Amino acid sequence: MSVAEEIIIEISRDTIEATAKTGRTGWGEPDFDPLRLATIQALEELLLEDMMDGGEISAGTEVSAIQRKHIVKASHLKVLGRQLYAVLFSKPKGGKPDIETLLFDKLKEVKPERLRLQLTFDTINPPDAEWINLPWEFLYSEKRSEFLSTDFNLVLSRYLKLDEDREEFKPGEEALRLLVVVSRPALEAPVISKDVLAKIKELETGPAGTSPAPKANLQVRDLKQPDQQALENALRDFNPHVLHFIGHGKYDPKDKTGYLLLVKEATGEGVPFSTDQLLSTFNAAQCYPRLVFLHMCEGGISERDATTRQAFSGFAPRLIHAKIPTVVAMQYPIKNEPARDFSLAFYQVLASGGKVDEAVQEGRRRMDSERRSLVFGTPVLFMHSADGLVLPPPKPGEGAKPAGEIGGQPAAQVSGEGRAPTGGQLPAADASVVEQVIQIGLQAANSLSGATQAIMIARLSKLKTQLIGKSSTEILNLLLDVWNKEKDVSIKEIWFNMMGVVPISES
Predict the structure, then answer these.
(1) Does residue 40 register a pLDDT over 60?
(2) Which end of the chain is least crowded, N or C, by CB within 10 Å?
(3) Angle at CA 376, nearest 5°, toward 308 and 443?
(4) 31-40, 399-408, 475-484 — which is least confidently predicted?
(5) Are 238 and 230 in contact (CB under 8 A)?
């Protein structure tokens, strides 16, 4: 699925205005009722306490009061989301068209594609800062019975308008370069990064036990316990598209400034690292990532304080205003399993040429699978452009490969509509090639859920009969055709992995 339309909702102190890409508008009048604000803040504080006192709560799970001080259920989150929704989708006076009607009309128009919904805040007549910092990612629609941040037909982000648009991305880059920085200073809480990092690296190397391993279009390098100089060196040497920071932050309420924590080489102590220092490091290394990902780990007592998380969520807008195109920040500490689920889905989409907001929405959806986690609203996406590309998608005529290389060899050149040249009658591929291709598809299909899994298995069974007796080039061409037509990013990734085991050279 791709984004077919977008709506930007601008919130000011007195009005809310929604504008669709096609020019249609909707209006509202924000309900900044003190009781509503207090309700939202109370529920958010309970949510933060629960996250710190033993992790996310599975919906419907009975938890003893001895085990947990507070219990936040899915129903409580819906109350939080409904309160936020009432602010954003309030009815205007004077007969003006309302925002909710615009939203639902546009959703009908774009089906089966997606609608991008971007929240922004008026810089001339802004609402109070406490409203800007609310967890809008938990918006809940009773009509759709869905949180907007996990709605399959929506893509939700925060949009920061600047005086100028960001750079135009150049085509032709073949791999998404990702630098993962893990920082755990002495005397700070542990940084649980091993599983998250392992899952990200699996995208580069392929899961253990698969032969040959299906790979994503990704190059990963990790940097542990860095000081500022080590970070600068890594940025200069690797020139990453994405900088992913896993660690802790601090927030100074006096000057309202957030800091990341790096490590002093000699002692291992934490060293505050500000936005200005990070931007200075980018400049010294002559490396300006297209995306910065700020991943706050679960841990210290200080992170129970709702103001401390602003070290991360407050860091993001400053980076955007400094012309970093896109920032993902975790607005709450996040535990290992949901962080791993989110990161895996997120980078799968990016590595296949998907857009950042689509990657974030897919990551949230994966975290929220079967409502087993209530932290899907934790990732916040900040952008200063409507088009969130990090890695340009492949274009017809630029190469047969969807990304990088196929099967460890240079992919065949394409001609016409993206097919490898056949060069006349070619010998049929060995039967083991077909078996291997289908086996890779079946292994990936097993990770899908419910009806999607059944449909995919049926598609693979039909495909197998089509592949028998064909040459390797014909197999690759057929898979390329399917890959090009596929709109579901997760399924698209399966076709890509299947192409990775097709031998390119013909005997």
Answers:
(1) yes
(2) C
(3) 130
(4) 399-408
(5) no
Strand order in the sheet with 154-159: 25-28, 16-20, 3-11, 114-121, 154-159, 379-383, 326-330, 291-296, 242-247, 176-182, 218-224
Q: How far is CA 247 from the centre of its chain?
A: 18
- Using one digit for the tens of pLDDT, what is the confidence trace for 331-372? 777 777 788 888 888 888 887 777 888 888 888 888 876 445
For residue 401, which amino acid is it? K
Q: What is the mean pLDDT of residues 245-250?
A: 84
Tell me which residue of 289, 307, 9 sits closest to 161, measured CA to CA: 9
Phi and psi at 247, nearest 5°, equal 170, -150
Tally DSSP H helices, then E strands, for the chain: 15, 16
- Domains in the chain with CATH codes: 3-157 (no CATH), 176-383 (3.40.50), 396-507 (no CATH)
CA dist., res. 132 & res. 135, Å (int): 9
Highest mean pLDDT among 263-267, 421-425, 484-488: 263-267
| 322: CB partners within 8 A, 6+ apart | 275, 279
Structure tokens at 26: 């909707």
pLDDT value at 169 more than 50: no
The secondary structure of 53-116 as a DSSP string is: TT----TT----TTT-S----HHHHHHHHHHHHHHHTPPPSTTPPBHHHHHHHHHHHHTTSEEE
**Residues, the chain, total?**
507
pLDDT value at 7 more than 90: yes
Instruction: Return contacts of 212-216, CB within 8 angstroms, 24+ apart.
Output: 212/407, 212/408, 212/500, 212/501, 214/440, 214/444, 214/496, 214/497, 214/498, 214/500, 214/501, 215/404, 215/497, 215/500, 216/347, 216/348, 216/351, 216/352, 216/403, 216/493, 216/496
SS3 content of the chain, % helix, strand, coil (to 5): 40, 20, 45
Using left for φ > 0, alpha for ψ between -120 and 50, and beta otherwise, residue 225 falls in left
HSE-CB for 341 with a 13 A CA cutoff: 20
